């Protein structure tokens, strides 16, 4: 099986090397298990098996966990995995009956591409609907509009703070959101902060996180999201991009583009909401 994988992988996403091992582990567990159990056995299996040339030596559990989540989506698209029970990975009848040697990775990859294309089209439709709705409800007095009006003074006050004070608020929000080990890796200007951190809970499953904070009111464009993701390579599996401004529609699509590491976006309005939730006092407020 190892030789077959080595021959197939050059033309497939790297995480496809885990497709057969994940199914094998699930079958060994009787077809149903919690993700943590699957990850533990998968990590043991990868660690003791012959390492393919495309696979890094002794991959860390968080890396395998992230790849395993991608494999889950592939198996769901193929009808080999059932997602009806939250927190449990359960093989379908087809998944239980699947012979590992009969698995066609190219076919699974085509199913993945088709599903991701449909998801992209659906997201574009949602963004267009949201933009249209925003334009037609500017002058309404719905409760959400009232809430945003109430937060406007706080947002204006936030934007008036110095970059140094804004950076302190950014780090405090990260800490109160359950992140620890916060390490500032780059501060290339007074208006930008970049660093790394990890989730406080469930360290075994969740990957490292990289964050960036912009202290300017300008709209963040898709190019900036792509640049940030490039900086994430080999350093983190997920990203958080924070700004006191906003994000363009293209930047929002780029942040959740399929096949690459996701980037969570937090704009000025969301920052104000988090400041209120965590009861963070602003300077000279």
Q: What does the radius of gyration come to? A: 22 Å
pLDDT < 50 runs, ≥5 residues: 1-6, 49-57, 202-207
Globular, elongated, flat, extended or rod-shaped: what is the shape?
A: elongated
- Beta-strand portion reads 5-15%
| Fraction of helical residues | 40-55%
- Spell out the helices and strands N to C: HHEHHEEHHHHEEEHEHEH
Q: Write out the strand line-up for the largest beta sheet, numbering strands in chain order.
A: 4-5-6-7-8
* Distance between the ends: 64 Å
The DSSP helix count reads: 11
Per DSSP E runs of 2 or more residues, the count of β-strands stands at 8
Largest sheet: 5 strands, mixed
Summarize the structure.
By secondary structure, the protein is of the alpha/beta class.
